[in-house]
Design a protein that fits this description.
This protein is mainly alpha-helical. It has four domains: 83 residues, no CATH class; 315 residues, no CATH class; 87 residues, Orthogonal Bundle (Arc Repressor Mutant, subunit A); 207 residues, Serine Threonine Protein Phosphatase 5, Tetratricopeptide repeat. Helix content is 57%, strand content 4%. It is built from 42 helices and nine strands. Strands 2-3-4-1-5 form a five-stranded parallel beta sheet, sandwiched between helices. It has a two-stranded antiparallel sheet with strand order 6-7. Helix 20 packs across helix 21 and helix 33 runs antiparallel to helix 34. The termini are far apart.
Length: 894
């Protein structure tokens, strides 16, 4: 098909003249397979085209959003079935069968009536078969004389373009059929030209079973059809006569029509009048094969349509029934059945289409940079690609097109999407365009409606994609969603900015209600994260000032230290000064989004970056009091990881003093900071008041393993793990498991290995970077005394430095101190103790230096500032005892 727009784009027309067609080999294979199966069925012994009761499987349906390339596919199928097949499509598998493709455009703009459909099929057969089909032809002539008096059939066919398409054989054959029957009935010549006289005589002859009409007597329903009032209703049953005539063609004339009904959605109306006639035609012609394309699935297998259509339900149309199955990639057809979604093009196909769409001197006119922008913006929709190509030609008249010229969507996409929707469906469509995904309840509430019917009808449209296995099963086609939210809307019922704001408010409230209702019954981490992702974006993009349920959800999200990604960074990188508010943060929603992003991203960023981001958020003053506490608490945690413990204590104390939701966690933070400073009695005294929310067992276990009291540490950590399991806190369970393995790694390497394996299993998918690195330290301690420990320790130092978690350097050096003490490597131990002393010069973790001396039974060079909960001698003896136990283990292998 010639691209006339490109041809007439300028005085220097481009070389390409053929319409570019992206490979739809998958759809061709579906048609070829189904057609081959149909041919086997109709040529099998016992097949009867007059059987009106057997289920119908002689069709295949392609449906998809407007502009996805259905009509182009139908034209290519017509050409391929006629012998002009694209090179990449495989060979047909029906050698020996004559195939007659007949494509009929049902678009309203084409003005095709049911009458035209019947005439087109018969006109195509007139050329291909080249002989009258008397049963049908006589009925057709009777109908024509009654409905179009004074309008010859040949004149009508010429006006409609069928003569130029198929020639003038049809009027000649119908007249020949009439004459042949009149001659067989021995009617006078003048009478033989009058349709009414011939059909009356033929009906009488059929009723009397005269030998002269034995050829037509085999069609049992011919007589009643000729007696019926020759109106549109009778015409809709005449295809039965056509199927009967095709079935009795001699072997040399046998042919299988493949009827391609394009733009089937334009047959839809409230009463399904045209659809009922077309369905009857399909049902009555089981020896033909039908390819139907439209925006929506055919609903003929839905029993609810009984009474509106003649044949409904899955028994009648087994290939059209909806069957669950795996969700295919968006550019592939759905597997199984006879209804197939025409999916979006893959990025590779989009680029290929654009490269071949416009060509100059054998080279693509659209460069790779522009093609990449168009492809990304198109979401795989061919209509977008063609609109972009047209825009390229328009811009090229005056200047060289640039990638930025195509970084937008097109209003034409919106017009196509809205063209066949009701007012309620358009309202729901705009509402759900605010959501990444939705279900019927969410769509209905976001639209502010009290009934789900418009939302349900919308989900049946091809612009909505369904994934039955997703949390919310429906989402809008990406290109349509972009058009709704970005393109200028010039429709009569377009929304004002206030309408969009109200819809965003409704959608945010609906998300919150769904989360709260579900959580009250069965808490779901997946739903929480999904609601937060959509809710944060809604609140941020639409500048909603009331955060509402987002505050509660933020606390639930952070409570278990799992850290699923919520949203990409929403502001530019903050200044490292940490004191200048970022002007991009100008609403509470902006601040909350950045707060949660900073907390989550700290697993992948240096803690200095985390502290700076949280300082920037705090300096805006946009957060409500509760969320300000959250920012202070997590900044204090970042300070602790950076060994800035004075700043950490100040932040934790601020949060503890407020008595808010994070007060117990802040008191735990203060207890840990006391432990890090070597003040174990203060840390121990804080434990009873912490409870579950303050993670009391974990704090207690950290105190015990530091004293080399393995038994009590294991008891505490096991109790903490059990408590976490009871509360469904998977993050805390993993964190406690790592510490359980840490306590055991000094005393029992075999059991430590088992516990460490469980720790890695529990950490999988939780994105806890510091605990993952600590688990690697545990592996070093477990393997202390073996040759590879020093080299592995150096690699671990590198990873810790990259993560911005300097406190873990001390754990690595403690592991090395244990290793060298076990092996009696005094010189290496001295070097390790020296490094530990430098790392703990601020006073935090200074007790690690004490422990390193205790391990090797070395005297302390100066009085220690550490306050143990036991005597110094007891702690010294316990740590040295662990070294002796490991040495014995290495000697005996037990």
């Amino acid at each position: 098909m010639t691209d006339l727009r490109a041809l007439f784009s300028s005085n220097d027309p481009i070389d390409a003249s053929d319409e570019a067609f992206t490979n739809r080999q998958g759809q061709w294979e579906l048609v070829a397979t189904a057609l081959a199966e149909h041919l086997r069925h109709v040529t099998a012994p016992g097949f009867d085209p007059a059987d009106l009761e057997v289920p119908r499987t002689h069709l295949i349906v392609f449906h998809g959003v407007g502009g996805v390339g259905k009509s182009t596919l139908m034209r290519k199928l017509e050409a391929a079935l006629g012998g002009t097949r694209p090179a990449q499509w495989g060979e047909p598998v029906w050698a020996g069968h004559r195939i007659l493709p007949v494509r009929i455009d049902l678009a309203r703009s084409a003005g095709t009536t049911f009458e035209d459909v019947v005439l087109t099929i018969r006109a195509a057969l007139a050329t291909a078969v080249a002989r009258p089909l008397p049963a049908f032809d006589i009925a057709l002539r009777r109908y024509w004389e009654a409905q179009h008096p004074g309008d010859p059939l040949d004149a009508y066919l010429e006006r409609g373009g069928l003569v130029s398409r198929f020639g003038k054989a049809l009027p000649q054959q119908t007249q020949a059929a009439l004459s042949d029957v009149a001659q067989a009935l021995l009617l006078p010549g003048t009478v033989g030209s009058v349709v009414g006289e011939v059909t009356g005589a033929l009906v009488s002859a059929l009723r009397e079973r005269r030998q002269t009409v034995r050829a037509l007597a085999g069609c049992a329903r011919l007589g009643p059809l000729l007696e019926a009032e020759p109106g549109l209703e009778a015409l809709s049953f005449y295809p039965h006569l056509l199927a009967w005539e095709l079935g009795r063609l001699p072997a040399g004339k046998k042919i299988t029509p493949v009827i391609l009904l394009d733009t089937f959605e334009d047959t839809a109306d409230r009463h399904r009048d045209l659809e009922r006639l077309l369905q009857r035609l399909v049902w009555l012609m089981p020896n033909c094969f039908f390819v139907i394309s439209g925006r929506s699935r055919l609903q003929w297998a839905d029993p609810a349509l009984h009474g509106q259509l003649d044949h409904t339900g899955p028994t009648a149309w087994p290939g059209l029934a909806t069957a669950p199955g795996p969700v295919p990639p968006p550019w592939h057809s759905a597997p199984g059945g006879r209804q197939h979604l025409i999916g979006d093009l893959s990025p590779e196909d989009c680029d290929d289409h654009l490269a071949r769409r416009l060509v100059k001197d054998g080279r693509p006119l659209i460069g790779p940079e522009i093609r990449a922008v168009i492809t990304a913006r198109s979401h795989g929709l061919p209509l977008h690609l063609d609109l972009a190509a047209s825009r390229f030609l328009e811009i090229r008249r005056t200047r060289e097109p640039q990638p930025a010229d195509f970084d937008h969507t097109f209003p034409a996409l919106l017009a196509r999407a809205l063209s066949d929707l009701t007012a309620d469906e358009r309202h729901v469509l705009r509402s759900v365009s605010l959501l990444d995904a939705f279900d019927l309840d969410l769509a209905t509430r976001a639209a502010g409606l009290t009934h789900q019917a418009p939302a349900r009808r919308l989900t049946e449209r091809p612009i909505v994609t369904e994934n039955p296995y997703a949390l919310w099963p429906y989402h809008l086609h990406g290109a349509i969603r972009s058009a709704l939210t970005e393109a200028d809307d010039h429709t009569d019922d377009r929304w004002t900015p206030a309408d969009w704001h109200q819809a965003a408010t409704r959608a945010l409230a609906a998300l919150g209600d769904q989360w709260a209702t579900t959580t009250a019954l069965t808490p779901s981490r997946i739903l929480l994260v999904a609601c937060l992702r959509q809710g944060l974006r809604l609140a941020r993009d639409h500048r909603l000032t009331d955060l509402g349920w987002l505050t509660d959800a933020a606390f639930v999200y952070t409570d278990d230290s799992v850290w699923e990604p919520l949203t990409p960074p929403t502001v530019p990188a903050a200044s490292t000064s940490g004191g200048v508010p970022d002007p991009a943060l100008d609403t509470p929603a902006d601040a909350l989004a950045e707060l949660l992003t900073a907390i989550t991203r700290r697993q992948h960023e240096h803690r200095e970056r985390t502290a700076d981001r949280l300082t920037t958020v705090l300096d805006t003053g946009l957060l409500p009091a509760e969320l300000t506490e959250m920012a202070l608490y997590y900044r204090a945690k970042a300070y602790k990881d950076l060994s800035r413990n004075d700043a950490a204590r100040t932040g934790m104390q601020q949060v503890a003093d407020t008595g808010g939701r994070l007060a117990l966690k802040a008191r735990r933070g203060l207890a840990n900071l006391a432990r890090l400073a070597g003040d174990f009695p203060t840390a121990l005294a804080a434990v009873p008041a912490l409870g579950w929310k303050g993670r009391h067992h974990r704090v207690l276990g950290d105190i015990h393993w530091s004293h080399a009291d393995t038994a009590q540490a294991v008891t505490a950590f096991e109790a903490g793990r059990t408590e976490a399991e009871q509360h469904g806190a998977v993050g805390e369970r993993a964190m406690t498991q790592v510490r359980l393995a840490l306590a055991l790694s000094f005393a029992d390497p075999a059991r430590a290995g088992d516990e460490l394996a469980l720790a890695h299993q529990l950490l999988n998918g939780l994105d806890q970077r510091s605990n993952t690195l600590l688990a690697q330290v545990v592996t070093l301690i477990k393997d202390a005394g073996t040759d590879t420990v020093p080299d592995r320790a150096q690699d671990l130092h590198t990873g810790i430095e990259a993560a911005g978690l300097p406190f873990l350097h001390r754990f690595v050096e403690l592991a090395l101190a244990f290793h060298h003490a076990v092996r009696g490597e005094n010189q290496d131990l001295a070097a390790t103790i020296s490094r530990l002393r430098e790392l703990t010069a601020t006073g935090d973790f200074a007790y690690f230096t004490d422990i390193a001396h205790f391990m090797a039974a070395l005297p302390l060079p100066r009085p220690s500032t550490t306050r143990w909960t036991k005597s110094d001698d007891d702690v010294r003896t316990a740590w040295h005892g662990l070294v002796q136990t490991r040495q014995e283990h290495l000697r005996t292998g037990n």
